[in-house]
Structures are given as structure tokens and as C-alpha cells.
Specification:
The structure is a homodimer of 206-residue chains. By secondary structure, chain A is an alpha/beta fold. The first copy, chain A, has one domain: Rossmann fold. The first copy, chain A, contains eight helices and five strands; from the N terminus they run αβαβααβαβααβα. A five-stranded parallel β-sheet of chain A has the order 2-3-1-4-5, sandwiched between helices. The interface between A and B is large, with 54 and 54 residues. Chains A, B: Catalyzes the synthesis of activated sulfate. Chains A, B: It catalyses: adenosine 5'-phosphosulfate + ATP = 3'-phosphoadenylyl sulfate + ADP + H(+).
């Protein structure tokens, strides 16, 4: 660093790392990876959790179809290869947010265990917390909800390779948290996640 | 939102937006897009700026070759198509960070005006601030520095399509800021950016 000439600029030696950003923000960081069938309630839980975290002063950011599929992944379709690349890119972006000090909330069906495990490995290799939350819901309940009318279209053959209909959903074997959105209330789901985040020291005790 | 049962959870109605995250963080957000020749000093300025912003309580995050080329863009090479896709993805990621409330510092050569202009449009369409900083430096000065020994390799023909040697660098026509890294000190460069950020209300007055 050259001699300081500027009057009111406090120079910082070296790179700013995750620990320093954590001190600035006053909380820890993690990727919370919601996985589950379409209509299982992933986004509902993520939106509610984001709101509660924000009220607690925690910087949280959701990655979902709206800002990812229409943005960085706009050049990807829904074949197997593109689905894998979709999840890979979301995982890489989530990792950057965690590195930046935020709690990243990813809500994608992410039906294949191998793709999710790669994202987990990506985080763990870098020493970044990865919390897989299985938003479990029976196909019957998800299909009965059908918030976007997608199951109807899949049953009518208008959508191919639809998870749960003609494409598999591989349930997580060892998720950090297993929610049952067809049996638990939204409050219970959010409380369960908050409890885990507190337990792991990612957010301050209530 | 269903009835509140949880004891100490403050629910938040609706999505958390950029304005609310800005209130939480206490500052505005923007993408600062550094462009210039290899060796022009983009990363040096970005690292120094990140440190100064951090000392001022501003959440800043650098996107560069280390965390992007080896992460989300690890499946991209250096041909024209891949270079364009590289910049597109970085632009989309930077946009997400701005949406999250951070000051994103992108330092890539980004030699083609069309690619940079697409990133600018991406931000402007979404009402997000985009600040293009041209880190101008003569080819002679950049080549004399050659911090990574890349010019030497390019001159020896070991690297093809190297910007400034056998691939063009298209200087920005109307950058928000035009730095001259072969004439200004690092302090002067950082001060110029801070002044612009203050002027635009992105960071609080000193």
C-alpha cells in the first residue's frame, strides 16, 4: 500500500474476508437449500423465513425461479443436462452470497440427489455452512394445491418430465431438516429452521 | 399469512425488497464495473475500495477471476462466445448482489463494449445503479508491470487472443468514471470513486 495522502479515508490492509463481513453484519452466514416437489411450499417457507430473519436484523436473500431462471440461468432449459447446470450455478451463486456474509435461501425443486450433493460439497470444501431442508409433502397434497396449475398440465401431457409425474424426485437421505408441509404450520416450519440456525450459531439467540 | 402461534417471531408481511435491505444495511447499493487492460490495476483498485468501504460500514463484495472464473464460470473458456457468456453471468450475479443491498465490485478486463453495455442495460432496466469505471492505462505501462507474466506469454505466442496484443480492447465511450492508473495514485483513484458514490447517495457523506 502506498503512502496515504487522502484525508478522511481509513485504509484497510489486505482483503476483506468472511469473518470481517460477519462482524459488520452481526451474524453468521449459510446456504439454506430448500428441496421438494413443485407445490410443496418451498417458496412459501423461504419468503416467510426471509421476512422473519430481516425483522431480526439478518441479511437474507432468496434465490428462486424469479431472479435466477430469468437471469443468470435464462439460457438454460429443462432437460437433464440443463437442470443439473441450473442447480450447479445456483449453488455457486449461493456460495458467493454466503462468502459475502448473507443467509442465502435457495428454493428450487432440485430433484436429483447428485446435483444437491455437489452443491453441498462445494460449500463444505470451502468451509461454508450448507443446510439442506427437505420440504416434504405428499404428491397428492402438492397436486391438490397445484398453485401454478402445472400438475394439471403435466397430467394432460402438456409438460413433459415433470417431477413427481413422469420424472423422479429423489428425497434427501440425510437433510439437516425434514419439514412436513402437509402436516406442519408455516410457523412451525419457520421456527424449526430458526432453532437450527441459532443452534449452529448462525443467527444470534432469540 | 396464517395465525401467529410462535412466541417470539415477528412476522413480516410480504416480500423483503431492496429498500428494506438498504434500511437494514444503512447504505445504498450499486454495481461498480471496473474495465481495463490486464495489468491496468482493476483488482488493485477494487481491493483497496472494498477495504475502505468496509471500514465505513458498507457491505461490499468483489467478483473477480478468483471466485467467478473458478466457480460459476468454471465451464467457460476464452473464445469470443465464452467471454461474452462470462461477462453476462458476472453481470447477472452483480445484479443479484445489488438487489441484496451490497456494493458489487466487478473486475474483469471485459474488453467488448457490447458485452458491458448489455450488463448496463440489465441493471438500468431493473432500476439498479451501474457505475462503469474505466481503469485506463497505456499498453506500455500495463505490459511493463505484467504482474502475472501474461504479456510475456502473449508476445511469445503462448497465449492467443490476448487483449491488447492480438485481441482488441474497446475503451468505454461514456464511463461514469475514467481513471488513469498510470498517472494517478491508488488513493486518488479510490477517492474519486468514493466521491462519486457519495454524490449519488449510494454511501453516506464522509
Amino acid at each position: 500500500m502506498t503512502e496515504q495522502k487522502a484525508t478522511n479515508v481509513h485504509w484497510h490492509e489486505g482483503d476483506i474476508g468472511r469473518a470481517e463481513r460477519g462482524k459488520l453484519l452481526g451474524h453468521g452466514a449459510a446456504t439454506i437449500w430448500f428441496t421438494g416437489l413443485s407445490g410443496s411450499g418451498k417458496s412459501t417457507v423461504a419468503v416467510a423465513l426471509e421476512g422473519v430473519l430481516h425483522e431480526q436484523g439478518v441479511l437474507a436473500y432468496r434465490l428462486d425461479g424469479d431472479n435466477v431462471r430469468l437471469g443468470i440461468n435464462r439460457n438454460l432449459g429443462f432437460n437433464a443436462e440443463d437442470r443439473a447446470e441450473n442447480i450447479r450455478r445456483v449453488g455457486e451463486v449461493a456460495k458467493l452470497f454466503v462468502d459475502c456474509g448473507a443467509v442465502a435461501l435457495s428454493s428450487f425443486i432440485s430433484p436429483y440427489a447428485a446435483d444437491r450433493d455437489k452443491v453441498r460439497a462445494l460449500h463444505e470444501e470451502a468451509g461454508l455452512p450448507f443446510i439442506e431442508v427437505f420440504v416434504d409433502c405428499s404428491l397428492e397434497a402438492a397436486e391438490a394445491r397445484d398453485p401454478k396449475g402445472l400438475y394439471k398440465k403435466a397430467r394432460a401431457g402438456e409438460i413433459k418430465n415433470f417431477t413427481g409425474i413422469d420424472d423422479p424426485y429423489e428425497a434427501p437421505a440425510n437433510p439437516e431438516l425434514h419439514l412436513h408441509s402437509d402436516q406442519q404450520s408455516l410457523e412451525e416450519e419457520v421456527e424449526a429452521i430458526l432453532a437450527l440456525l441459532r443452534e449452529r450459531g448462525i443467527i444470534p439467540a432469540a
